[in-house]
Design a protein that fits this description.
8% helix, elongated
Length: 400
């Protein structure tokens, strides 16, 4: 008897929840230009987590000071008459309910071919939401103003996130990802769109199949990978690793070691605290402020400015198969220089430093076959090897 009473009480509780949901929800259908629109509005009790999973439609989540979850869901149909449009709206089963510690909003298309042209899920949540897990098969995802984590996935729409306190995982099949300020770690992936990150407080891991990547500021380490686009980093507070199949790479101030690779684009670095490794198949390399560097290009010039540093230093190598190499060395840098031109053919090694001795080998016509140079500056230090198969080499004094 007690068991039956318990079951009955459970049924009543479930019914009460459903009645509560139904009473908090309103639906209307109206003409909107050349489309029919179904608008569903409602509210749910506050929950720690929000899960949204819809077959199509954009999803926008906004955190605020309210204590409950409210939503406006609009679905549009281009059907010619209202009756047919209503049948399509009925085939897109949309539900909103609390299950456990999560508020769940789902959109499940149960019809065949349809004239539904768009859907829009606008959800207002308490700012202290722990997790927003959002999935749409074919729309944009936008989240702003929550203190918790975000997991966002779209089959092909844009993803835009800002003012997020926790870690972020975002994925889209082929559109752009735009990040404002995020305090947690970032893991971003798009099949071919652009990635833009304004202010990342945590670690960054971002990849795109074919778009560009722009990172304005990262407080910690970052790993960026582009299938063929350009990569631009203004500031990074830790280790940086960037690679692209063929685009250009431009880096600003990097507070850690750097690994740079491009299949055929140019590389430009403003300043790095740690060891720099740079490689390109055929572009120019420009390193403006480094203490140690290993740079190689298949067919392009190299410019490197070596400055003193209290951090880790190691041997450096600058090498190109065809191009000039220009090395600027600050007055207080202790370094041992070894340089060579394999096929001079009129090219030379020139130096502002008397401690670097230049010599040549080969006949006088059509010029020496090879040039070499060696020397120690400020008593010597880590070795700097400079080599070009054909091109000039210059060692110039740099200001501090």
């Amino acid at each position: 008897m007690l068991k039956k009473y318990s079951q009955f009480a459970g049924v009543l509780a479930t019914a009460a929840v459903l009645v509560s949901i139904a009473s908090a929800q309103q639906v209307r259908v109206y003409r909107d230009g050349d489309a029919w629109t179904q608008e569903m509005t409602g509210s749910l009790a506050a929950a720690k987590n929000l899960h949204v999973n819809v077959d199509f439609g954009s999803v926008r989540v906004q955190g605020g000071s309210q204590q409950e979850i409210t939503y406006v869901i609009r679905t549009r149909s281009y059907s010619s008459d209202e009756k047919h449009a209503r049948r399509e709206f009925e085939a897109y089963k949309i539900s909103a309910a609390i299950r456990g510690d999560a508020a769940r909003i789902e959109g499940d298309w149960q019809g065949g071919h349809h004239h539904l042209c768009s859907g829009e899920f606008v959800i207002n949540v308490p700012r202290d939401l722990d997790l927003a897990k959002l999935e749409t098969s074919g729309g944009d995802v936008t989240v702003t103003g929550i203190t918790g984590r975000v997991e966002a996935q779209s089959g092909g729409g844009k993803v835009k996130l800002d003012n997020v306190g926790g870690a972020v995982t975002a994925e889209t099949g082929g559109d752009s990802i735009e990040i404002g300020t995020v305090n947690g770690d970032l893991h971003l992936e798009t099949g071919g769109g652009k990635i833009y990150i304004a202010n990342a407080k945590g670690k960054v891991d971002a990849s795109t199949g074919g778009g560009n990547i722009v990172l304005v500021s990262s407080a910690q380490s970052a790993t960026l990978e582009a299938g063929g686009g350009n990569i631009d980093v203004k500031q990074c507070g830790g280790k940086l690793k960037v690679s692209t199949g063929g685009g250009n790479i431009e880096l600003g101030d990097i507070s850690g070691p750097v690994e740079i690779e491009t299949g055929g684009g140019s590389i430009r670095l403003g300043w790095a605290k740690g060891i720099v490794r740079a490689q390109t198949g055929a572009g120019r390399i420009e390193l403006n402020g480094v203490s140690s560097a290993r740079a190689e290009t298949g067919a392009g010039g190299i410019m490197a400015k070596f400055i003193s540093s209290t951090g880790e230093r190691s041997d450096s190598v600058l090498e190109t198969s065809a191009g000039d190499i220009v090395v600027y060395i600050a007055p207080d840098v202790a370094i041992t220089v070894r340089a060579s031109i394999d096929l001079a053919n009129g090219h030379k090694i020139m130096s502002d430093f008397t401690d670097i001795r230049v010599s040549s080998e080969g006949g006088e016509w059509p010029g020496p076959k090879s040039f070499t140079a060696e020397g120690k500056l400020n008593g010597g230090g880590p070795t700097l090897k400079v080599r070009t198969t054909t091109g000039d080499i210059k060692f110039l004094r740099a200001s501090r």
